Amino acid sequence: MIYAEVTGKAIVDRIDTLIKARNLKRKAVADAVGISLQPFTSWANRGSLPSSDIAYRIAKYLNVSIEWLLTGEETELASRDDLELARRIAALPPEYRELVERQIEGFEGLCLRSQGEETESGSA
After folding, report:
1. What is the DSSP string of the chain?
2. How far is CA 61 from the centre of its chain?
3. CA 32, CA 54: separation in Å to the nearest integer?
4. Whole-model pTM?
5. Mapped to the 3 state alphabet, what secondary structure does 1-31 carry?
6. How much is the pLDDT for 110?
7. Mean pLDDT score across all residues of the chain
8. What sign results for the dihedral spanned by CA atoms 54, 60, 64, 66?
9. First CA to last CA across the chain, in angstroms?
10. pLDDT: is 76 or 111 the higher one?
C-alpha cells in the first residue's frame, strides 16, 4: 500500500471540505475540540501537524476516522459485531477455541466448494 504524505495543509483541506459539506465554520470545530483558530493557520501555512490528541478530537467531532483525517485514505475496519465475536471466542477455554477454529475451517471449506459448484454450473 502506498501511504499518502501527511501534511498540515492536506489535513486542513480535509477538515475544510467536511466543514463546508456540513455547513459549519472552523470556529465551531475549534470550540468543540477546545482549541483556538490559530492552529488551523499554523497547520496550513507552516506545515505543522496537530497533536495526536487534537487530531483525534477533530476526527471524532467530524465523525471520521483519524486515519482518514491524516491521510485521506480509509482502511476497512472490523465491525463492532466482529470484534465482539472475536472477544467471545478469545474468552473460551483453549480446548473450546480449538473446536470453534475447526468449525470455522469446516464452514470455509463448505463455502469454497459451494462457490466452485456455482462457477462450474454457471460455465456449463
Report:
1. -PPPP--HHHHHHHHHHHHHHTT--HHHHHHHHT--SHHHHHHHHH-----HHHHHHHHHHHTS-HHHHHHS---PPPPHHHHHHHHHHHTS-HHHHHHHHHHHHHHHHHHHHHHHHHHHHHH-
2. 15
3. 11
4. 0.57
5. CCCCCCCHHHHHHHHHHHHHHCCCCHHHHHH
6. 85
7. 83
8. positive
9. 38
10. 111
The amino acid that residue 13 corresponds to is: D
- The C-alpha cell 467536511 sits at 18
Tell me: the pLDDT tens digits for 3-61? Answer: 566 888 889 999 999 999 888 999 999 999 999 999 988 898 887 889 999 999 999 99
Does domain 8-71 fall under CATH 1.10.357.140? My reply is no
Distance of CA 108 to the CA centre of its chain: 26
- Return the axis-axis angle of helices 38-46 and 8-21, rounded to nearest 10°: 130
Length of the chain, in residues = 124
Of 77, 72, 69, 75, nearest in space to 53 by CA: 69
Distances (CA, A) of 54 to 40, 105, 121: 11, 43, 55
